[in-house]
Design a protein that fits this description.
Strand content: 5-15%
Helix content: 40-55%
Strand order of the largest sheet: 1-8-5-4-2-3
Structural class: alpha/beta
CATH architecture of the largest domain: Up-down Bundle
Number of domains: 2
CATH topology of the largest domain: Dehydroquinate synthase-like, alpha domain
Order of helices and strands: EHEHHEHHEHHEEEEHHHHHHHHH
CATH superfamily of the largest domain: Dehydroquinate synthase-like - alpha domain
Number of helices: 16
Bound molecules: 5,6-dihydroxy-NADP, zinc ion
Largest sheet: 6 strands, parallel
């Protein structure tokens, strides 16, 4: 196992009815800006619960943070922050609202000229407004982590900072009952691929991390399809297990002391930026192709994954690895996700542009060995056609 430092300071309020906990977790004297997306929270009662919980606080609101949050939208919040002396942000929504709010928090206290530099030039974030969140879509792990992904003019790029980690996160599985099947599939597969990015690399004898990761993968494989099946889709225990698995998949814990990949995500971000695909729908297409192209460098972990997660014990190594990849694809398909570029009408002619963007964004030595160069990314996209 490699050395590591680990701390996750986000206080979690988990379970039905926990939205009221924001009353205690948010400073009484704070001037709060509640941020949200396109209005799902007004239809499913979450907005009312938040308003009720904040009835003794001073708060304002900023709506309209779109999926794959856009820089121009996020910058509009800055005027409100200045006008009302906002000193606390409360994100209410999915990963896009939480990520967008992280950017708003950092941009509000940025001393330089262009806050986009925080993303494009990866300028370290020295200060940010504190924020909490009420998560409505289990998927990204953004609710307790230090990452965010923001888009500007066709460039979808991540940034990381301890300064934007939420102070608290409310995880109420009941609020996920209003999700569409599409968003449920997206969330389960995003969490699954987050786990794989930190697990499917090479072994460093990190037994705890490996077995935690395998437990998360098995949980998502067991519970994911239940959240789509008519007879179990409203089962709160199913939703609770999915929600906690998604948080655990990207709160940093399974990634400590182990090599990490993230090539699927970086290639996927270009697909979203260029073709508007939902984040998770890029992952369900890219990951199986990456598993095929990187079989040699991931051989040991692919066999372990096949045996421990899918109980594949028969056949030679090649057969077992092919079976593990096929079962992964079948799982994605059972979550109603595309697994080929052709499923989303992206053809071979799009690949040059995607490779150009990856190169432009410096994504030229991806993966746990840094060996996924643009030609290898091209092979992965070709394998995904
Ligand atoms: O905008 P509203 O009206 O709220 O509707 C949203 C949105 O249209 C809707 N929704 C959310 N909760 C709902 C609901 N609809 C009904 N009931 C509910 N309870 O779902 C739609 C999608 O929401 P979005 O926030 O975009 O989805 P998700 O949580 O999958 O977030 C995706 C974003 O997170 C980034 C992605 O790149 C993408 O931009 N990621 C962030 C990461 C991180 N911070 O660590 C890691 C991830 O890998 C990912 O890259
Ligand atoms: Zn993701």
């Amino acid at each position: 196992m490699q050395n590591f430092n680990y701390q996750n300071t986000t206080k979690i309020h988990f379970g039905e009815g926990q939205i009221k906990a924001i009353a205690e977790s948010t400073p009484k004297t704070a001037k709060i800006l509640v941020t949200y997306g396109g209005g799902s929270i007004k239809k499913n009662g979450v907005y009312e619960q938040v308003a009720q919980a904040l009835s003794e606080h001073t708060w304002f609101e900023f709506a309209g943070i779109e999926p794959n949050p856009n820089y121009d939208t996020l910058m509009k919040a800055q005027a409100l922050i200045r006008e009302h002396n906002i000193d606390f942000l409360l994100a209410v929504g999915g990963g896009s609202v939480v990520d967008g709010t992280k950017f708003i928090a950092a941009a509000a206290l940025f001393q330089g000229e262009d806050p986009w530099d925080l993303v494009a030039k990866q300028i370290p974030i020295e200060k940010a407004l504190p924020m909490g969140c009420v998560l409505t879509l289990p998927a990204t792990g953004s609710e307790t982590n230090t990452a965010a992904v923001v888009t500007r003019a066709g460039n979808k790029l991540p940034f990381h900072s301890e300064r934007v980690r939420p102070v608290f996160a409310v995880l109420d599985p009941a609020v996920t009952l209003s999700l569409s099947d599409r968003q449920i599939g997206n969330g389960v597969v995003d969490a699954f691929v987050h786990t794989m990015e930190q697990y499917l690399t090479y072994s460093v004898n990190a037994k705890v991390q490996d077995r935690f990761a395998e437990g998360l993968l098995q949980t998502l494989i067991e519970e994911g399809p239940k959240a789509l099946a008519a007879e179990s889709k409203n089962n709160l225990e199913v939703r609770a297990n999915i929600m906690w698995a998604a948080t655990m998949a990207l709160n940093g814990l399974i990634g400590v002391g182990v090599p990490q990949d993230w090539a699927t995500h970086m290639i996927g971000h270009e697909l979203t930026a260029a073709h508007g695909l939902d984040h998770a729908r890029t992952l369900s297409i890219v990951l199986p192709a990456l598993m095929k192209v990187c079989t040699d460098t991931k051989r040991e972990k692919l066999l372990q994954y096949g045996e421990r997660v899918w109980k594949i014990t028969e056949g030679d190594e090649h057969t077992r690895i092919q079976r593990a990849i096929a079962l992964t694809e079948a799982f994605f398909a059972s979550m109603q996700m595309p697994t080929r570029l052709s499923h989303v009408e992206v053809g071979e002619q799009a690949i040059d542009g995607l490779i150009e963007k990856l190169t432009q964004h410096g994504m030229v030595s991806l993966g746990e060995h840094g060996k996924i160069t643009p030609p290898v990314s091209r092979d992965i996209l070709l394998a995904a056609l």
